[in-house]
Write a structure and sequence with these properties.
57 residues; mainly alpha; 84% helix; membrane
C-alpha cells in the first residue's frame, strides 16, 4: 500500500468520524429530555448573584 493512498484514506475516515461525533453531540443537545437540565445549567452564573441579594437585602 502506498503512503499517499494510506494518508488519503485516513484523512477521509477522520472526516466521516468527526461528522458522526458532531451529529451525536447535536442530537444529544436538542433532545427534549435534556431541555430541563440545560435550562437549569444556563442559570448557574446568576445563582450566586441571587443568593447575595437575598442575604444582604
Amino acid at each position: 500500500m502506498d503512503m499517499h493512498l494510506l494518508s488519503s484514506l485516513a484523512r477521509e475516515l477522520w472526516v466521516v468520524w468527526l461528522l458522526i461525533i458532531f451529529a451525536a453531540i447535536i442530537f444529544h443537545a436538542y433532545r427534549k429530555r435534556n431541555k430541563e437540565h440545560f435550562a437549569d445549567c444556563a442559570q448557574i452564573p446568576f445563582r450566586e448573584d441571587a443568593e447575595e441579594t437575598t442575604h444582604h437585602g
